[in-house]
Design goal:
Layout (H helix, E strand, L loop, with lengths): L2 H9 L12 H14 L2 E2 L3 E6 L4 H4 L3 H4 L1 E2 L2 E2 L27 H16 L6 E4 L3 H14 L5 E3 L37 H4 L6 H16 L3 E2 L7 E6 L1 H11 L14 H4 L5 E6 L4 E4 L7 E2 L2 E2 L4 H4 L5
Parallel strand pairs: 2-8, 5-6, 5-8
Antiparallel strand pairs: 1-7, 2-9, 3-4, 9-10, 11-12
Helix pairs in contact: 5-6, 8-9
InterPro entries: His_Pase_superF_clade-1 (IPR013078), His_PPase_superfam (IPR029033), Phosphatase_SH3-domain (IPR051710)
Pfam families: His_Phos_1 (PF00300)
GO molecular function: phosphatase activity
Protein backbone atom coordinates (compact mmCIF):
# COMPACT_ATOMS: atom_id res chain seq x y z
CA UNK A 1 0.00 0.00 0.00
CA UNK A 2 1.40 3.44 -0.91
CA UNK A 3 2.09 6.00 1.80
CA UNK A 4 -0.39 8.48 0.29
CA UNK A 5 -3.16 5.86 0.25
CA UNK A 6 -2.51 5.07 3.90
CA UNK A 7 -2.88 8.75 4.86
CA UNK A 8 -6.18 8.98 2.98
CA UNK A 9 -7.55 5.86 4.66
CA UNK A 10 -6.55 6.99 8.14
CA UNK A 11 -8.26 10.37 7.64
CA UNK A 12 -11.58 8.70 6.78
CA UNK A 13 -11.56 5.51 8.86
CA UNK A 14 -15.03 6.31 10.18
CA UNK A 15 -16.47 6.99 6.73
CA UNK A 16 -18.26 4.08 5.04
CA UNK A 17 -17.89 5.80 1.66
CA UNK A 18 -14.10 6.12 1.67
CA UNK A 19 -12.78 6.40 -1.88
CA UNK A 20 -16.09 7.68 -3.30
CA UNK A 21 -17.36 11.19 -4.03
CA UNK A 22 -19.58 10.96 -0.94
CA UNK A 23 -16.58 10.52 1.33
CA UNK A 24 -16.85 13.05 4.15
CA UNK A 25 -13.47 14.62 3.33
CA UNK A 26 -14.63 15.27 -0.24
CA UNK A 27 -17.94 16.74 0.92
CA UNK A 28 -16.16 19.07 3.34
CA UNK A 29 -13.73 20.13 0.63
CA UNK A 30 -16.61 20.78 -1.78
CA UNK A 31 -18.49 22.84 0.79
CA UNK A 32 -15.34 24.83 1.45
CA UNK A 33 -15.03 25.69 -2.24
CA UNK A 34 -18.70 26.70 -2.39
CA UNK A 35 -18.27 28.96 0.64
CA UNK A 36 -15.30 30.68 -0.99
CA UNK A 37 -17.29 31.25 -4.17
CA UNK A 38 -20.21 32.68 -2.20
CA UNK A 39 -18.06 35.45 -0.69
CA UNK A 40 -19.59 38.21 -2.78
CA UNK A 41 -20.83 41.57 -1.58
CA UNK A 42 -22.78 44.54 -2.84
CA UNK A 43 -20.85 47.80 -3.07
CA UNK A 44 -20.80 49.67 0.24
CA UNK A 45 -19.37 52.86 -1.21
CA UNK A 46 -19.56 54.46 -4.64
CA UNK A 47 -17.37 57.31 -5.86
CA UNK A 48 -18.60 59.14 -8.95
CA UNK A 49 -16.00 61.34 -10.61
CA UNK A 50 -15.64 63.68 -13.56
CA UNK A 51 -12.71 63.19 -15.95
CA UNK A 52 -9.66 65.44 -15.74
CA UNK A 53 -8.63 68.53 -17.71
CA UNK A 54 -9.13 68.08 -21.45
CA UNK A 55 -6.74 69.39 -24.09
CA UNK A 56 -9.39 70.94 -26.33
CA UNK A 57 -10.77 73.01 -23.45
CA UNK A 58 -7.41 74.66 -22.83
CA UNK A 59 -6.08 74.79 -26.41
CA UNK A 60 -8.78 75.71 -28.89
CA UNK A 61 -8.13 74.32 -32.36
CA UNK A 62 -5.13 72.34 -31.14
CA UNK A 63 -5.50 69.50 -33.65
CA UNK A 64 -4.66 71.93 -36.48
CA UNK A 65 -2.16 74.15 -34.67
CA UNK A 66 -0.12 71.22 -33.33
CA UNK A 67 0.24 69.54 -36.72
CA UNK A 68 3.47 70.46 -38.50
CA UNK A 69 4.43 68.66 -41.69
CA UNK A 70 2.02 65.90 -40.71
CA UNK A 71 3.67 65.37 -37.31
CA UNK A 72 2.17 66.16 -33.89
CA UNK A 73 4.25 68.98 -32.41
CA UNK A 74 2.98 70.31 -29.05
CA UNK A 75 3.36 74.07 -28.68
CA UNK A 76 2.74 74.26 -24.92
CA UNK A 77 4.24 72.24 -22.05
CA UNK A 78 0.75 71.44 -20.76
CA UNK A 79 0.03 69.54 -23.96
CA UNK A 80 0.85 65.82 -23.94
CA UNK A 81 4.41 65.32 -25.28
CA UNK A 82 3.07 62.53 -27.49
CA UNK A 83 -0.42 61.43 -28.40
CA UNK A 84 -1.65 58.39 -26.45
CA UNK A 85 -3.03 56.53 -29.47
CA UNK A 86 -1.51 56.21 -32.94
CA UNK A 87 -4.38 57.46 -35.09
CA UNK A 88 -5.08 60.47 -37.33
CA UNK A 89 -5.04 63.64 -35.28
CA UNK A 90 -8.49 64.58 -36.59
CA UNK A 91 -9.91 61.69 -34.55
CA UNK A 92 -8.94 63.62 -31.42
CA UNK A 93 -11.26 66.50 -32.26
CA UNK A 94 -14.20 64.48 -30.90
CA UNK A 95 -12.24 62.32 -28.47
CA UNK A 96 -9.72 64.57 -26.79
CA UNK A 97 -6.94 63.42 -24.45
CA UNK A 98 -6.18 65.02 -21.09
CA UNK A 99 -3.45 67.58 -20.52
CA UNK A 100 -0.23 67.06 -18.58
CA UNK A 101 -1.75 68.94 -15.65
CA UNK A 102 -4.85 66.82 -16.07
CA UNK A 103 -2.83 63.66 -15.57
CA UNK A 104 -1.21 65.09 -12.45
CA UNK A 105 -4.61 66.16 -11.09
CA UNK A 106 -6.04 62.67 -11.59
CA UNK A 107 -2.98 61.18 -9.93
CA UNK A 108 -3.51 63.45 -6.92
CA UNK A 109 -7.06 62.19 -6.59
CA UNK A 110 -5.78 58.62 -6.79
CA UNK A 111 -3.22 59.29 -4.10
CA UNK A 112 -5.98 60.78 -1.94
CA UNK A 113 -8.07 57.63 -2.29
CA UNK A 114 -5.10 55.56 -1.18
CA UNK A 115 -4.46 57.78 1.86
CA UNK A 116 -8.17 57.77 2.80
CA UNK A 117 -8.32 53.98 2.43
CA UNK A 118 -10.88 54.29 -0.37
CA UNK A 119 -8.91 52.24 -2.90
CA UNK A 120 -11.39 51.20 -5.63
CA UNK A 121 -12.17 47.49 -5.79
CA UNK A 122 -14.09 47.98 -9.04
CA UNK A 123 -13.67 50.74 -11.65
CA UNK A 124 -16.15 51.67 -14.37
CA UNK A 125 -15.55 54.42 -16.91
CA UNK A 126 -17.04 56.04 -19.97
CA UNK A 127 -15.35 54.98 -23.25
CA UNK A 128 -14.10 58.54 -23.89
CA UNK A 129 -10.32 58.73 -24.02
CA UNK A 130 -10.25 61.42 -21.33
CA UNK A 131 -12.21 59.11 -19.01
CA UNK A 132 -9.95 56.15 -19.75
CA UNK A 133 -6.85 58.23 -19.03
CA UNK A 134 -8.35 59.67 -15.85
CA UNK A 135 -9.51 56.30 -14.54
CA UNK A 136 -6.13 54.73 -15.25
CA UNK A 137 -4.24 57.53 -13.48
CA UNK A 138 -6.49 57.18 -10.42
CA UNK A 139 -6.13 53.40 -10.49
CA UNK A 140 -2.35 53.57 -10.66
CA UNK A 141 -1.78 56.09 -7.86
CA UNK A 142 -4.43 54.55 -5.59
CA UNK A 143 -2.70 51.18 -6.10
CA UNK A 144 -5.99 49.58 -7.11
CA UNK A 145 -5.76 46.14 -8.67
CA UNK A 146 -9.04 46.56 -10.55
CA UNK A 147 -9.19 46.40 -14.34
CA UNK A 148 -11.19 49.15 -16.03
CA UNK A 149 -14.73 48.22 -17.08
CA UNK A 150 -15.55 50.36 -20.08
CA UNK A 151 -19.28 51.10 -20.10
CA UNK A 152 -20.77 53.02 -23.07
CA UNK A 153 -23.90 53.69 -20.97
CA UNK A 154 -21.79 56.21 -19.04
CA UNK A 155 -21.08 58.26 -22.18
CA UNK A 156 -22.40 61.82 -22.08
CA UNK A 157 -25.42 63.06 -24.02
CA UNK A 158 -24.84 62.37 -27.75
CA UNK A 159 -26.48 65.66 -28.78
CA UNK A 160 -23.18 67.36 -27.83
CA UNK A 161 -21.51 65.71 -30.84
CA UNK A 162 -21.90 66.45 -34.54
CA UNK A 163 -21.21 62.77 -35.26
CA UNK A 164 -20.20 59.62 -33.42
CA UNK A 165 -16.59 59.95 -32.24
CA UNK A 166 -13.93 57.44 -33.20
CA UNK A 167 -13.03 55.89 -29.87
CA UNK A 168 -10.12 53.69 -28.85
CA UNK A 169 -10.24 50.11 -30.10
CA UNK A 170 -9.60 47.14 -27.82
CA UNK A 171 -6.00 47.05 -28.97
CA UNK A 172 -5.51 50.80 -28.47
CA UNK A 173 -6.99 50.84 -24.98
CA UNK A 174 -5.02 47.83 -23.74
CA UNK A 175 -2.45 50.27 -22.29
CA UNK A 176 -5.09 51.32 -19.74
CA UNK A 177 -5.55 47.78 -18.36
CA UNK A 178 -9.13 47.33 -19.52
CA UNK A 179 -11.18 44.28 -18.54
CA UNK A 180 -12.18 43.02 -21.98
CA UNK A 181 -14.22 40.22 -20.40
CA UNK A 182 -16.70 42.77 -19.10
CA UNK A 183 -19.97 42.82 -21.06
CA UNK A 184 -21.29 46.40 -21.40
CA UNK A 185 -24.98 47.18 -21.22
CA UNK A 186 -25.11 48.88 -24.63
CA UNK A 187 -22.96 49.59 -27.67
CA UNK A 188 -21.93 53.14 -28.46
CA UNK A 189 -23.29 52.92 -32.00
CA UNK A 190 -26.71 52.06 -30.58
CA UNK A 191 -26.52 55.22 -28.48
CA UNK A 192 -25.90 57.32 -31.59
CA UNK A 193 -28.48 55.53 -33.73
CA UNK A 194 -31.31 57.81 -32.59
CA UNK A 195 -31.83 61.13 -30.90
CA UNK A 196 -31.64 60.99 -27.12
CA UNK A 197 -33.66 63.59 -25.26
CA UNK A 198 -32.87 64.73 -21.74
CA UNK A 199 -35.46 62.41 -20.15
CA UNK A 200 -33.89 59.40 -21.87
CA UNK A 201 -30.42 60.57 -20.81
CA UNK A 202 -31.58 60.73 -17.18
CA UNK A 203 -33.03 57.24 -17.47
CA UNK A 204 -29.91 55.81 -19.11
CA UNK A 205 -27.58 57.03 -16.39
CA UNK A 206 -30.08 55.94 -13.75
CA UNK A 207 -30.22 52.44 -15.21
CA UNK A 208 -26.45 51.99 -15.34
CA UNK A 209 -25.77 53.42 -11.86
CA UNK A 210 -28.47 51.29 -10.25
CA UNK A 211 -27.14 48.26 -12.14
CA UNK A 212 -23.65 48.96 -10.80
CA UNK A 213 -25.02 49.43 -7.29
CA UNK A 214 -26.86 46.09 -7.48
CA UNK A 215 -23.94 44.05 -8.86
CA UNK A 216 -22.25 41.79 -6.32
CA UNK A 217 -18.48 41.53 -6.41
CA UNK A 218 -15.93 39.17 -4.84
CA UNK A 219 -15.17 40.42 -1.34
CA UNK A 220 -12.82 39.46 1.47
CA UNK A 221 -14.87 41.39 4.07
CA UNK A 222 -11.74 43.21 5.29
CA UNK A 223 -12.96 46.59 3.98
CA UNK A 224 -16.09 48.12 2.49
CA UNK A 225 -16.43 47.30 -1.21
CA UNK A 226 -15.67 50.54 -3.05
CA UNK A 227 -16.70 51.22 -6.65
CA UNK A 228 -15.30 54.11 -8.70
CA UNK A 229 -17.28 55.47 -11.65
CA UNK A 230 -15.42 57.89 -13.95
CA UNK A 231 -17.63 59.83 -16.32
CA UNK A 232 -18.49 63.38 -17.27
CA UNK A 233 -19.63 66.48 -15.39
CA UNK A 234 -23.26 65.56 -16.02
CA UNK A 235 -22.59 62.04 -14.72
CA UNK A 236 -21.72 63.45 -11.30
CA UNK A 237 -24.81 65.68 -11.22
CA UNK A 238 -27.10 62.88 -12.38
CA UNK A 239 -25.62 60.51 -9.79
CA UNK A 240 -26.46 62.88 -6.93
CA UNK A 241 -30.01 63.20 -8.24
CA UNK A 242 -30.43 59.45 -8.75
CA UNK A 243 -28.81 58.07 -5.60
CA UNK A 244 -30.34 60.59 -3.19
CA UNK A 245 -33.33 59.43 -1.08
CA UNK A 246 -35.31 62.26 -2.69
CA UNK A 247 -34.53 61.72 -6.33
CA UNK A 248 -34.38 64.60 -8.78
CA UNK A 249 -33.67 64.85 -12.50
CA UNK A 250 -31.22 66.96 -14.47
CA UNK A 251 -32.78 69.35 -16.99
CA UNK A 252 -31.39 70.91 -20.15
CA UNK A 253 -30.98 74.17 -18.25
CA UNK A 254 -29.03 72.37 -15.54
CA UNK A 255 -26.53 71.22 -18.17
CA UNK A 256 -25.73 74.83 -19.12
CA UNK A 257 -22.14 75.51 -18.01
CA UNK A 258 -22.23 72.40 -15.84
CA UNK A 259 -18.48 72.07 -16.29
CA UNK A 260 -18.00 75.22 -14.20
CA UNK A 261 -20.16 73.84 -11.41
CA UNK A 262 -18.59 70.39 -11.46
CA UNK A 263 -14.89 71.04 -12.20
CA UNK A 264 -12.35 68.58 -13.52
CA UNK A 265 -11.82 65.55 -11.27
CA UNK A 266 -14.76 66.48 -9.03
CA UNK A 267 -15.77 63.56 -6.85
CA UNK A 268 -18.84 62.68 -4.82
CA UNK A 269 -18.76 59.83 -2.31
CA UNK A 270 -21.92 57.83 -1.64
CA UNK A 271 -22.37 55.38 1.21
CA UNK A 272 -24.97 52.62 1.12
CA UNK A 273 -27.63 52.73 3.82
CA UNK A 274 -30.36 50.15 4.35
CA UNK A 275 -32.62 51.34 1.52
CA UNK A 276 -30.81 54.27 -0.12
CA UNK A 277 -27.43 55.83 -0.86
CA UNK A 278 -26.27 58.71 1.31
CA UNK A 279 -24.05 61.36 -0.32
CA UNK A 280 -21.12 62.34 1.90
CA UNK A 281 -20.29 65.93 0.79
CA UNK A 282 -16.90 66.12 2.50
CA UNK A 283 -16.06 62.44 2.34
CA UNK A 284 -12.98 62.96 0.16
CA UNK A 285 -10.36 65.72 0.38
CA UNK A 286 -10.41 68.26 -2.47
CA UNK A 287 -7.52 69.39 -4.64
CA UNK A 288 -7.02 73.14 -4.43
CA UNK A 289 -4.50 75.53 -5.94
CA UNK A 290 -4.61 79.13 -7.15
CA UNK A 291 -7.85 79.85 -9.04
CA UNK A 292 -8.87 76.18 -9.03
CA UNK A 293 -10.54 73.61 -6.83
CA UNK A 294 -12.12 70.33 -7.81
CA UNK A 295 -14.92 70.82 -5.27
CA UNK A 296 -18.40 70.65 -6.75
CA UNK A 297 -20.66 73.69 -6.39
CA UNK A 298 -22.57 72.45 -3.36
CA UNK A 299 -25.74 74.52 -3.79
CA UNK A 300 -26.15 73.36 -7.37
CA UNK A 301 -25.32 69.68 -6.98
CA UNK A 302 -27.40 69.17 -3.83
CA UNK A 303 -30.43 71.11 -5.09
CA UNK A 304 -33.93 69.64 -5.16
CA UNK A 305 -36.64 69.75 -7.80
CA UNK A 306 -39.05 71.39 -5.43
Amino acid sequence: MSRSHSRSSRSCTSCSSTGTYNCQSNVERSNSVINVREKRSLPSEMIVMRHSERVDDIFNGWTKKALKDGVYSPYDLNMPPSLPINRPIDCYSLDTPITVNGRVLAQMVGRGLFVMKKVPDVIYCSPSLRCLQTAYAVKTLSQSKALLRVEPSLFENPHLYRSMPTLATKEERAQFEVDERYKPLIRLKDLFSKEERIKAYNNRIKDVLLRIAATTEPSNDSKPLTVLVVGHASTVDLAVGILNPKQRETSIMDLHRIGDRIPYCSTVLFRRQSSFWEPIPDGLPPVTYRNFTNRVEHEFVYRSNE
